[in-house]
Amino acid sequence: MSSIFGLSEEQEKAVDITKNIAVSAGAGSGKTRVLTNRYLRLLEGGLQIEEIAAITFTEKAALEMKERIRKAISEKISLSDSYHKKQWMNHLDKLNRANISTIHGFCSNIVRENAAFLGVDFSFSIIDGIDKTMFLREASQNAAEHCIELGEYEDAVGKLKSVFGEEYLQGTFTEEALRIRSGVLEEGKSIRQLCESSEEGSIRKFCLAVASEIEEAYLNYKLKQDLLDYDDLETMTLKVLSIKSLRERYRNRYKTLLVDEFQDTNSIQKDILYKIAADDDGRLIDKKLFVVGDFKQSIYGFRGTDYTIFKQVSKDIENEVSLSTCYRSKSEIIKGINSIFSELIDGYQPLKCPKDEEIKEKRIKLLTYEKTRRTSNNVYTEVKNMLQGKESKKFEDIYQALKALKDSNNDITVKENKEGTAVIKAIKLLMDKNLKFKDICILVRSRAVIPDIEAELKRRNVPYCIIGGVGFYQKAEVDEILNLYKVIVRGFSGEFTYEENKNFIQALRGSLFEISDDTLLKMDIEKEESNLENLYEALKIHKDGMHSEKLLNTADVLEKLAALKEKFSVVQIIQSIIKECNVFEIMLCQDNGLQKFRNIEKLLQEAEKFDKDQLFTLEQFADYINLLDEENGDDSEAALDTEDSEAVKIMTIHQSKGLEFKGVIIPKIHSDLLSMSKKDKPNLVYNKSSIILSKDLEDTKLTTPGYEEYLNSKLEKEIEETERLLYVAMTRAEDYVILTGGDDGKDPSPIKDETDKIKELNSFLKQLKYAFNVGNADKELIEFINSDDIEDLEIIKRDIPKIQIDKEKLQKSLGYKGNIKNSASVSASKYMKYKKCPRRFFVESVLNINAGNYVNVINEPTENFKDNLEVAEVEMDEQVKDPIKYLKASELGTIVHKIIEYKNSGLDISDELLTEKVVSKTLDEDSTISLENRTKIIDKIKNYIKNYELIEKNRKNLGEIILSQNEVYFLISPLEDRKTMLTGFIDRLEVFKSEDKNVAVITDYKTNYIDNDETLCNLVKIYTPQLRLYGKAIKDNLYVEERKMDEVLLKIYFLGKGICVDVPYRDESVERTINDMDKIFGRNLETMKVEDFPKAEKHECEKCIYKDICLN
After folding, report:
1. How far apart are CA 488 and CA 484, in angstroms?
2. Strands 981-994 and 997-1006
């Protein structure tokens, strides 16, 4: 059996499909090649694509694996005889439906297939991580406040206050309660049960009661929103697989499982895999499981992964294969890495070189500079720290510090950027070795080091790109607008808190207003002398007394902006800040102005997303952005240089997993790897069903023994993970790896216990020194370089084309929303709604007026279900002619669409039960619907389903079906300027292979009331543009079997009558519609007046629900 790739002897052992295999794959050993080959061998062995489940660590890895398999199968087709070519072509056709996904993608499919059994909505969504954190923080605050007020916890609350202070329970405790909740859930235990088993009135019971209330609030929130999180997917999948009949179904479906990056698995994920790969006694089924991992690359312990599971499973499998030959790195790098990490990582498995070559040069370089302790204590540093929210031991408040700064004679010296300079010199060393900028990647452990590096790169004009990186939320221009936003949303009534006062001062001192420190001090004096509530009141007095034009303008602008919060969204407030404060003009006049301009545009995009989600308040936007900053390491500046350009890359070590670069630089290796863990020591921790306090209740100066043991164990695990992190970073290099940092000249001591390990190995530099000076690592493999001995990199001359600035266009762009063409996202139904009556569109979609608040008619939602497609004819007709007046047209449509979607998904459930379930979910919350009316609704829906089946029965056979999907979402930009985006949901999409043609069939379901042929003709006329737009999206953008559609057929199912109408597709008609949509929605509708939206024709007004309140 031949392989499409040439495999080494050890790789050949790993693709033996006759047995279960656990592969220990070292860095650069070709595990991706092995995975791809094993997949092909399984196909050659007779398995079908749908019988193989391949599980990867990331979605990107899943896509890459599918693409490699696609290329491999294509090559097989070109090399095979006619018989085998047909088999491989069949595999290629099915590849789009291959089960290649992350573990959560795999679980999601199982949960959706068993939604009825689990009691969840088939169309559930996964909650966004930031939204989850925002909700949990608020729930934690509410739960803590509620439990503190309960008398039963009075004793516990009193003890916590006496030990940790009065403010602890309203601040830090809420975060620790969230950690306690997570700790219990990670152990797979019930928070409520632990709480009920706790001693009455104890601190343990109080903490678990708060955690229990948080969990209950979170579960209710997810239930109402039809949301699940990743933990839910895992626990629900395990619940499904705990049922014998369901477990057998999936065992029979998936003949084999391939799992990549198995060292990053947790215990519940392992249990899920074993439910399918093992029998009911827990013994692995033959040829059922293939896992690949490398415990040396386990760097996700903070996510709850456990690399020891890989070792346990490897023992269960018994057939272990080691891939140890590294094909990525030069032999000098491989030998150096082996020498270092054999002294650091227990059980280290050395990498092998493909060829046994002599050492020609030292490719691992340690570039260090003398590290000196800073003793600066000047006033400038104090002021800077206070403005960043840090406490000062020298000054009582910021005003005292500002006055001292003014009076101070201290020299403000510029800090020498030794680390940034060392990185620049490392780049020069690599360029001297003929590497280009694009060959170099700087791998950082923490984003904190990036600003120093960035400053030096900019100073020398070195092109760089932060890949999915960091920096955006810390940029001064972004921070300044967010700070002013917080001031505006807070308002100016009442006394400011310390934090609010700080925000106000920062807003006035920034580049938007440039109020001097001198003036701020005078304002503060004015506030005290006049007994004013806050500095804003002082600003107004100065405005009247001093007649300063700048202060007049500042006060006017703040007053104007403050009035917006009552009626504007987040994005509108920020746009108003930009306009009123001339933000774009100011930024474009500054250094690096274009980058700042782009960053502010990116902030607007985040604001639009926040508004669209509609989950939180205006006040929570700043917290939302802070969370993005804290938790989403994938957010970078709006890029100028890109990943594919001639630029140095900067990314975190975690992001570099699976990648390789000719030259790797690892900066700031002297930094304390445990600094954050030591700094953020919790007061309460959960460990093995116990709540542990950091301080003794009797003597608060003492640390509890259990806490010390817990903390040391945690820090020791972090040290071990950082050793593996350094291994991952160094093994990304092909030709050279340079490590930079400050050396204090101290050598490490031998390690006797875990406390010594925490002290002696808490930086990459200390780990390296330990390997060389205490261990037996070979120093001859490393080049030690003093940074002072290396020449600096000269300023790079870049051939940047001059940009011709169109002044008129620039002026328009500075006006932003009001003056430039609007970026519109338009659905076909939104266009239909506008065309039916522009005036009504204005009332509902621009003014957001709901008819139910003004007239006695049934409320209808605004663009929820398919953007209210049924708003066309049915709303009045059905209310008049249909006896079921208590059911909205959109609700009826939603129910029918869901039932048809379930039927088409192949769900094993009767029509009657399916109808009852979907109707119940929609109507149960409305207790006003009687049993009689409920029966009428179900009968009506059954009639729709009966008509649907009748239409389906009479459908013409168009050939072999090669694609079938329900609820297909699309987003296209049909015009050159890409401003107007066309969106929509296609009810059903099928692709048939007919006489060597790809024929796409688009089907749309309608539930309109139809009483005669004229009504039917009118409805077809109304819906035709919508169907043709869907056809345009599919015709231009859908590829099946690597070819576009040759023909598009459009069908409307009128389910009320059991009629199918064919709509002809016409390109010229679609082009006219798109241009009309662009003309309408390319404008900024929010700035237009009512007279810009004409009324519909008179016959439409007669049945309009707004006819009595229509604006003249």
Report:
1. 6
2. antiparallel
